[in-house]
Amino acid sequence: MTNLALEPSVQVALVTAGSAIAVAFVGVAAEFMRRQAHALGEVREHVQEARDQVANTHSTNLRDDLDAVAHRIDRVLALQVRHSEDIAALRTDIAHERRERLAVAERLDDHVAATTV
Question: Which one of 8, 15, 46, 80 has the minimum C-beta count within 10 Å?
């Protein structure tokens, strides 16, 4: 068996097979690296887009701006509750006025009916 390993044809075959395997491995590694570079390029583009969307290009802090907007919304909601309460009170007043007006109209009709007979 050791005589086979020393024969030049076996040595050539081993070197050729090893070289083919090494070239294939280098090719696979190169393709893997190319795909990784492409994926990193896409990630870089997405990161830049996100950075452009959230970059603070004005003099105030975005969080402070959002807090101010939330405070204003809370004030509007509080005013809406007050307005709803005011409208409910007006409806109650109008209903009371209507009942009184109908009562006066009924008494007037009774008075007119009693005096015309």
Answer: 8
Nearest-angstrom CA–CA distance, 109 and 117: 12
0.70 exceeded by pTM? no
Instruction: Give DSSP secondary structure letters for 41-96.
Output: HHHHHHHHHHHHHH---SSS-HHHHHHHHHHHHHHHHHHHHHHHHHHHHHHHHHHH
What gap in Å lies between CA 36 and CA 50, rounded to an integer? 21
pLDDT digits (tens, 9 = 90+) for 85-113: 999 999 999 999 999 999 999 999 988 88
Note whether 10 and 4 are within 8 A (CB): yes
Q: What gap in Å lies between CA 92 and CA 84, rounded to an integer?
A: 12
Tell me the C-alpha distance between 95 and 102, whole Å. 10
